[in-house]
Amino acid sequence: MSEHPPASVEVRRGLLLTGSGSVISLAVLFAETVVAVRLLSPDAFGQFVLITAVVNFFLIVVDIGSKDAVVKLIAGVEERRKALLAESILVFRVALAGGASLLYLGGLWGGEHLARILEPSLSVPEQAWFVPLMLFPASLDELFLGILQGLRSYRHLAIAQSLRSILRLMLTISFLSVFHWGIWALILSWALSSTASVLYQYCVAPIARGLSWDGAALKEVLRFGLPLQLIRFLWFGLRRLDVLIVGALAGPGSVAFYAIALRIPEALQRLYDSFIAVYFPTVSALGRSRQAERLLNQSLRLIAFLTAIAALAAVAFSRDIIPILFSGKYAPAAPAFAVLMVTLQTSFLLTLMGYTLTSCGYPGRSLTANVLQTSLNVLADLALIPIFGFVGAANAAVVSSYTTYPINVLLLRRSGMGVELRPYLKQTFLLLALAALSWWVLPEAIIYKAGVVLLFVLLNVAVSAVSRDDLSLILSPRITRMAPLAQESSHAR
User: Fold this and answer.
1) Rounded to whole angstroms, how far apart are CA atoms 381 and 245?
2) Which of 190, 277, 319, 345 has the most CB atoms in a 10 Å sphere around its CB?
3) Distance of alpha carbon 130 from alpha carbon 122, whole angstroms
4) What is the dihedral of CA 397, 401, 402, 408, to 10 degrees?
5) How many domains does the chain divide into?
6) Predicted confidence band of residue 147 (pLDDT cuts 50, 70, 90)
């Protein structure tokens, strides 16, 4: 058996903690969606999705790239500077979030009065006035998560995730079923649960209490964070602008169907974030070394393999999953859900490569790749949504993801990190071929659907697309010795 790098121990330890928090968060927030779509009309749920898109946009505005920058910088500085760096960026974030909230309310008030001059019947939806109520605590919550991630305080990070998610579900159920507050139930549960998470993290984070300020440290965060800020805007364009385009071109009802198709992929994204929360500070600490390169390629093979299994299962059972989980009225979302799950494999790998570029000190190169991907996605949205409706947005994600993957590989190689293409090509070919077989050819019987997933696993073993060493990132060495994938591929050597 090959010797595992020390980084694998750190990854496993962090994943055990953050993964548990993400699993709880995933299950609880998924349950909240099931409750919401059954108690709200598609139009009401679609309106909430649009409101959260606005909130997410302003989250990026006030972030200035600091959430990801603080992870790398805290992970790479000496112990005595960590607390001061965290406190400086926290004070700055409070000022930005407060200022942005006031500017938003002022702009909304002025815009409404101007609109009434032009057309007296026009008015701003009352829910729009409460965007700052969601924005301010959510902004501080995500910054604290970044601080804990950089400090590798994974236990507190997991507790904060779980606290926020469980409280949000309890409040949503109470506000919807007992008080019948409709869309307001979702807005208030978001705000209150985020506030509780912030209070917990402030109490446990090892930072200075007060108004400490380190101008040099803040400048370093902003300098490194500017390209990351642009990347987040592009990520918003990639993940949220399609929702706005669907709303503009197809209406709130289609937004609800598309949001349902996105729910499981987004839940898996939350679970994947627990891996990134461990991977990013770990690879940042390793720098551009052979150990970091090995960790990258192991992670790429493992993530591609696991997400392909999930995608293939989703394609096979998509016509059953959507009606069972979300009710029969959302059955038309099944094709979009299947396409989005297939895209998820490459999307996860692109995220991993982007974080690796940033950890190598090249956030600008990650920005370049994201600019291209987002531009392609928006153009494809505008071309395909008028033809295919909300399913066109899912098809656009396929086009942009597969087109930009080789560009990310090239940028990583130019940055001194060798990326192996052969395992990805094998896994992707098998995924697409078996997904097409499952969707268009095989009967609906469960045995055929389960069989195609098992066939994918066996073929991956046969072509050495994943190894026992790769599984060691998430499993203990004792378990991997007993794993069915006992033959190491040449890619792991």
Assistant:
1) 7
2) 277
3) 19
4) 170
5) 1
6) confident
Measured distance CA(475)–CA(11) in Å, rounded:
10
Per-residue model confidence (pLDDT) at position 307? 92
Mean pLDDT calculated for residue range 471-488: 44
Helix (H, G, I), strand (E, B) or coil at 444: coil
Q: Is 387 exposed, middle or buried (0-12, 13-18, 19+ CB in 10 A)?
A: exposed
The number of CA neighbours under 13 Å toward the Cβ of 38 is: 16
Query: Does 262 score more than 70 pLDDT?
Result: yes
Residue ranges of the alpha helices (H) in 287-421?
Answer: 290-326, 334-359, 363-388, 390-414
Q: How confident is the model at residue 438 (pLDDT cuts 50, 70, 90)?
A: confident
Q: What is the mean pLDDT of the chain?
A: 82
Question: Could you write out the DSSP letters of every residue in 91-142?
Answer: HHHHHHHHHHHHHHHHHHHHHHHHHHHH-TT----GGGGGHHHHHHHHHHHH
Residue 160 has pLDDT above 70, yes or no: yes
Helix (H, G, I), strand (E, B) or coil at 30: helix
This prediction has a pTM of 0.68
Domain interval for residue 173: 6-492
- Give the residue among 310, 330, 306, 307 at the shortest CA–CA distance from 320: 330
Residue 351 CA to residue 300 CA, distance in Å, equals 10
With cut-offs at 50, 70 and 90, classify the pLDDT of residue 5: very low
In total, the chain counts a number of residues equal to 493
Give Cβ neighbours of residue 370 (< 8 Å, ≥ 6 apart).
230, 231, 234, 235, 238, 354
Residue 265 maps to a domain: yes
Confidence category of residue 349, pLDDT binned at 50, 70, 90: very high
> Which two tokens mark 57?
């946009």
Is 1 part of any domain? Answer: no
> How far is the CA of 482 from the CAs of 128, 473, 479, 486, in angstroms?
55, 15, 5, 7
Tell me the HSE value of 181 on the side-chain side, using a 13 A CA sphere: 16
Q: Cβ atoms within 10 A of the Cβ of 448, count?
A: 14
What pLDDT, on a 0 to 100 scale, did the predictor assign at position 410? 94
Contact between residue 250 and residue 385 where contact means Cβ atoms under 8 Å apart: yes
pLDDT for 330 beyond 70 = yes
The one-letter amino acid at 490: S
In a domain, 256, yes or no: yes
End-to-end CA, the chain: 10
The sign one gets for the Cα dihedral 94, 151, 207, 25 is positive
What 3-state DSSP class applies to 239? helix
Structure tokens at 6: 């020390």
